[in-house]
Amino acid sequence: RLPATVRSRCQLLQLRAPGADHVADWLRVEQAVVRDAQRAVGTAPLALAAAIRESNYVLFNTLESDLAAISEDRMDPQAVAQSWAKGDTALALQWLRRRLHAELKSRLASPDGSTSVTVPAAEPLHNAWRALPDRVLFDAYDGAEKLLNQQGSGVNVELALLAMLSAFVVNRGRS
């Protein structure tokens, strides 16, 4: 966003996020808590601290199991849309956007475009989404971004969530 004249006079510093052990020491929590929060919000230390302080990472585990259940036809997208609309919708959409980004990045990084099954406990959404085409994931990412930007503008959030979550039903239309 900076003008080229300003950017040309800046020095670029590459900073790496601290490891889970350093963050755990800093926040005085267990490393397992930090790893759960990192899966949900990424590695930025202040975002991790906020998620751990507010226990949001527990909510993210619920959101992940909701999406896996939709993808595996174990849960109705309408019920999940209602639940997300009643809760912190912005937080849920930010999380969804992050998960979709990670999935798309994983797929696009694979030389053969493989969506092969990983260790089930490690990546439940990857396993649930393996039958979904990339286009569905890109559309959902775009939908989450648009809905985040439209919040508070009078848009029917529950209906928009239902439309977006319905795309994750893998076996739609099959008997």
What would you note in describing this structure?
With 175 residues, the chain is mainly alpha-helical. Helix content is 64%, strand content 0%. The chain contains 10 helices and no strands. Helix 3 crosses helix 5 (56-71), helix 6 (77-86) packs antiparallel against helix 10 and helix 9 (134-150) packs antiparallel against helix 10 (157-166). The termini are far apart. The mean pLDDT is 81.
Nearest-angstrom radius of gyration? 18 Å
Please indicate the percent range of residues in DSSP E strands (runs of 2 or more): under 5%
Order of helices and strands: HHHHHHHHHH
Low-confidence stretches: none
* Major sheet: none
State mean pLDDT (0 to 100 scale). 81
Give me the number of helical elements: 10
Helix content: 55-70%
What is the total tally of β strands? 0
Terminal residue distance: 50 Å
Q: Kindly name the structural category.
A: mainly alpha
Shape: globular
Compact description:
The chain is mainly α and 175 residues long. The protein is built from ten helices and no strands. The mean pLDDT is 81.
List keywords for this structure.
175 residues, 10 helices
Secondary-structure topology with pairs:
Blueprint: H1 4-7, H2 20-27, H3 31-41, H4 45-53, H5 56-71, H6 77-86, H7 89-109, H8 124-129, H9 134-150, H10 157-166
Helix pairs in contact: 2-3, 3-4, 3-5, 6-10, 7-9, 9-10
